[in-house]
């Protein structure tokens, strides 16, 4: 009994699954039926009737018959085949032969896709044919208008086109047979072929329009503007050469001769309507001509510069030579009293040698100016270089002369500085002697001795003959540094001694009540009498801070006020 129930359940499940699969297939069949009906009832023949408004000849008639045959095949063959396959698929589904049904459904999909492709092809070609007829009709009128305008332009302005007139007329007249060919194709219903004619004519019309605009402009450049510039350049060259300008380096005559020949070649190319070659070359020629104008102007400017500055440069050169010789003599005299480094002592000699070379360059420049066989632009460059070199040597010699004059000033400053350092050291000795201190530490004595030694070294260097100011300056710097340090340390020591005394006096009040304070103060007093003032200050400060924290700061302020009052006094 259990096995029977299981079998029944399995069969029931299989039946339910089968029903579900059949339902899915029925949905597919309904969709395919709907797509078949859309193809079958699509008004393709109504669309084809639009062609009858055109000339039903030639290509149009062939297309119409071809489309009608294709669609007739779709309706009479493919749709009927699809109906039959749909019927077979429904029988397979009813009998639960789903695999065969799927195969048939796939075949129906392929047939429907084929029919859809045929429909789309017909519609596309139909729209192209009808659209070509409409575009052709509009554009051909525009092209004819361009053609009539071009003919009028050529007739009215024949002179403007010069040798290119014949070629332009020939290209314009080529429109006429194309128009005739277009009309014939249209009458015969060959609208797509006529479309190709229209596209070609449109491109040619644009080209003709460009040529009609460019050719007169380019011809004016070749026949009028550039020849006028050539004539002007030749006249300018003759006038400048008559005024003794040297222009051979420009090779202007050769360039202008070659240019006149090239203009004839460009004119021939323009007669062949080779605008793409002629136009950019004419732009280059205009740039070249403009460059020659600039070069001629440069020669005029250069001549004015040379004429204006040649005498001034000669005068400046003589003045610098004279001044350098005087500086050289002055250097020899100064070296009797002051030592000069070798590289500095040779500055006037080197300057005189350089000026001798410059004099030769200037003499050569003057001879070239008189010979009138050199371009003024090159003469100007040479003159500028000579002037700059003279100015450089002049500045160098003036700086050297200034250093010579400053040697005496520097000596006086050094002696004044020495006196100042002596006074500082003497004042430091006086302060140490006047200060109420037990004695001076060995370290401070050594510093003072070193400072005195540095003073002595400066005094000895100031007695040298010839006097070496570089050495003197170095010794002065060393002495100043040493004496400043001595003065600073002496002042600090005096302040520390004064501070120690005030701290010990302040701490005496706590000796009887605080043994630790008493011990520290005894140590501070011992160090104080041994001239160990830093140690004494540390012990005294520690003792007072132990007894009364913060007291040291108040004592320091009082000492500073006392020192200020003494300095004021």
UniProtKB/TrEMBL annotation:
Membrane topology, from the record: Single-pass membrane protein
Cytoplasmic side: 22-569
Protein purpose: Negative regulator of FtsZ ring formation; modulates the frequency and position of FtsZ ring formation. Inhibits FtsZ ring formation at polar sites. Interacts either with FtsZ or with one of its binding partners to promote depolymerization.
Subcellular location: Cell membrane
Keywords: Cell cycle, Cell division, Cell membrane, Coiled coil, Membrane, Septation, Transmembrane, Transmembrane helix
InterPro entries linked: EzrA
Family classification: Belongs to the EzrA family.
Coiled coil spans: 249-276, 369-431
Highest taxon above the source species: Bacteria
Keyword Cell membrane among record annotations: yes
Keyword Kinase: no
Primary gene name: ezrA
Name of this protein: Septation ring formation regulator EzrA
Residues in compartment: Extracellular: 1-2
